[in-house]
Amino acid sequence: MTSQDNQSTASLDTGFTKTWRYKIGLSMIIVGHLGMLLALVMPALGVGAGTAGAMVVGGELLSLASIIFLGKAGFKAIKSKFVGAVKASYTQPVGKGRHYIGIALLWANMVTAYILMVYGWASFDFLIAGNLQFEFWGLDLAQQKNLAFWIFFMGEISFLVGIYVLGADWWGRFRRIFVWEAQES
Fold first, then answer.
1. Of 100, 115, 159, 184, which is most buried, counting CB atoms within 10 Å of its CB?
2. Alpha-carbon distances of 35 from 44, 55, 63, 79, 150, rounded to whole Å
3. Final residue of a domain: which of 45, 64, 91?
């Protein structure tokens, strides 16, 4: 692909983002994904799993239906804007506040890992003692399963977001920890 082709694709993407087809398609993607995110919260609010499942399926279908309006040009426009925004925010210099937020998120990952370790150790001792009803910390077995999953999930999400928030420069400094350098005498 030549630079002239790249320029024509870029101008097509820019022009296409102003059309009604692009706006409707983008709205459908946003509403569909918001519906799927809302479906994750629905069981915690006491709404049945069937309703949450229907919201996931509906959101997915709505997002897929946006292809009709977006087409190849719309998809390229969304992709270039999203990738550009993520790349720009990741590679920009990180201020003191953003750095401390990133470090706090990494610590949150470590804390959740230790909470799960303590839970596993304490509940194993509880089971060994012959308590077959297995109510532990005031939670029945199903509630404990959900709690363990969400603690683990939130820990992993905090790790990934923390790495992103710390930015590309921090990741380079972190890698240098593992490289041995001779001390100057």
1. 159
2. 15, 6, 10, 21, 20
3. 91
Q: What average pLDDT does the segment 10-39 reach?
A: 79
Helices (H), 17-95: 20-41, 49-91
CB 122 within 8 A of CB 66: no
Name the residue range of residue 164's domain. Answer: 96-176
Which tops the pLDDT comparison, 81 or 136?
Answer: 81
CB burial readout 73-97, b (16+ within 10 A) else e? bbebbbeeeeeeeeeeebeeebeee
Give CA–CA dist 93/86, Å, rounded.
14
- Asked if 78 and 29 touch (Cβ cutoff 8 Å), the reply is yes
CA distance 86 to 39: 26
Q: How far, rounded to the nearest angstrom, does the alpha carbon of residue 39 sit from its chain's CA centroid?
A: 16
Q: Which of 18-27, 84-93, 133-142 is predicted least confidently?
A: 133-142
> How far is the C-alpha of 24 from the C-alpha of 10, rounded, in Å?
20
* Position 151 in a domain: yes
**Tokens representing 129?**
């003692």
